[in-house]
Amino acid sequence: MPGHDTYQRLISLLDTSCVDYDLIDHAPEGTTDAVSALRGHPASEAAKCIVLRVKVDRRTTRHVLAVVPGDRRVDLDAIRTLFAARYVGFSDAETAERLARAVPGTVLPFSFDPELELVADPDVVVRPRLYFNAARLDRSLCMSGADYARTAQPRVEPIAGPHPADGTLA
């Protein structure tokens, strides 16, 4: 089970960092809207985690774990500007799983791989409560955005797109 070690590593990090968190067991689910409903909170309190491929130039590719509020999209143009990149797109599933050490739908807003750069939107780190799947489809974690920022140490940059005008998240 690829997420098991990642789950244990997360819990160990939070425990050794004296972070106050809650674990929430629920039916297996990996999409932000559906799991937010199962956990009983608005999607805006969820951390949506997307692994991106960032081509800085012809020879240099970086991988970025972008973390945005669950009711927003990653602004690929903002990532492109941030890294002065030629191209930004979603990583293929195999690369994302290898770098995030979790299967799709369970990617943590933490990076345990030096090749995966962590960037979080400011709206994520200011949340009083931040929810995310804990490297498992059937268990989530809730902690404060401030504790998240302290333990994950993301680069904090405005990378979330605007709120969708029509209420959709697509």
TrEMBL record:
Residues 27-150 form the YbaK/aminoacyl-tRNA synthetase-associated domain. It holds the Pfam family tRNA_edit. InterPro entries: YbaK/aa-tRNA-synt-asso_dom_sf, YbaK/aa-tRNA-synth-assoc-dom. This is YbaK/EbsC family protein. It comes from Streptomyces cellulosae.
